[in-house]
Amino acid sequence: MNPRLKTALALVGSFALGGGLLWLALRGVDLSSVGTALADARWGWALPLVLVTVASHALRAWRWQLLLGAMPGEHERVGFGNAFASLLIGYLVNQAAPRLGEVARAANLSSRSDHTFSGVFGTVVAERVLDVVSLAIALLSVVLLFGSRVGVITERFVAGTMAALEALPISGTVLVLLLAASGAALLALAWFAFARGGEKVRGVLMGFKDGLASLLRVRQRLALVGSTLGIWVLYGVMTYIPLALLGLTDAYGLGFADAWALMNLGAVGMSLPSPGGTGSYHYIAVQTLVLLLGVAQAPAAAYAILTHASQLVLMCVLGVIALVWQGTSFRAVTRSARDASA
Question: Where, by residue number, does the polypeptide cross the bilayer (predicted)?
């Protein structure tokens, strides 16, 4: 399949998913009340939010360095600057093309080191494995903290989702058929890519295996665990600060434990293949605030809009700075990412 057509289809699907979930998240919300909540925000919290966000990305880049240093063979040490810039470039690309950012991140770093693309991409996947395990543990802690309330939100969340889907101008049968067709198309694309790849695919898989195995070869395991814990704590702080910024900590008595639950459930929304988590994050954040934490719908929507928009703007600004720092352009990075994943 033509790479441009494949990319276009992926973009259409991701934007459709994001748009649908954004409609679900804001359905019935009084937008004037959302505007009032944002206008009355305590914007003095904005600078601490930016600093904590940058610190979390820096810590993630350092953790990535640990994995890159555990790659087999003799390699030059990857500098923190290149790792940090590549990470930020990946985040920038992800805002427009979900999941292509991970490829762009690996392609940019491999072009500035003696590592192969497949090996670097393997370390990115190793990072994601670490993130999934960490998220599973964190979600378990949410269950322990909130007990039966998590069961209530699950039931109401599913019921509300089904009711909203029934309100769509298509039948449930048609929706299921569309989802099934999408899944079949993705499987067909995967088979086609593997069948056409031959020796190239096998070579890529060997490098990919080395990168993924770096998770087991890391010598500084305490640093790996500590950096992972630090990243998640900073994410919790990044979630708490907007609650304070909007006055929700005072109005609803929300604390760090509530922010921890919101952060973990919101991470599930960010993992869905919509552009930069648009729609999926909004929907899950609003549902969590309303159903689990008892926040009114308008301030809950204001929180979702504020946090997502601020992170989007910050990621774009930092990503552009990283592009200038690396002496490249968005077009060049995305082109190399598509070539690497073709």
Answer: 43-62, 129-147, 167-194, 222-245, 284-306, 312-333
Backbone angles phi, psi at 9, to 5 degrees: -65, -40
Q: Which of 24, 44, 78 is nearest to 245 (CA)?
A: 44
Q: Which two tokens stand for residue 12?
A: 């259409």
Q: Return phi, psi of residue 130, to 5°.
A: -60, -40
Q: 3-state class of 41 per DSSP?
A: coil
- The one-character DSSP state at 29 is -
Q: Which two tokens stand for residue 291?
A: 């159903």
Q: pLDDT at position 270, please?
A: 73
Report yes or no: 260 and 141 within 8 Å, Cβ to Cβ.
Answer: yes
The closest alpha carbon to 92, from 102, 83, 82, belongs to 102
pLDDT at 291: 86
What are the residue ranges spanned by the domains of the chain?
3-341
CA 125/CA 104 separation, integer angstroms:
13
Which residue numbers in the chain have pLDDT < 70? Answer: 1-29, 73-74, 148-212, 272-277, 341-342
C-alpha 190/C-alpha 193 separation (Å) is 5
User: What is this structure's pTM?
Assistant: 0.79
Structure confidence by residue, pLDDT tens digits, 64-91: 999 998 887 667 889 999 999 999 999 9
pLDDT at 283: 84
Q: Look up tokens 């049968």; give the residue.
A: 173
Question: Is 221 in contact with 281 (CB distance < 8 Å)?
Answer: no
Beta carbons within 10 angstroms of residue 193's beta carbon: 14
Q: Give the span between the Cα atoms of 228 and 56, in whole angstroms.
A: 10
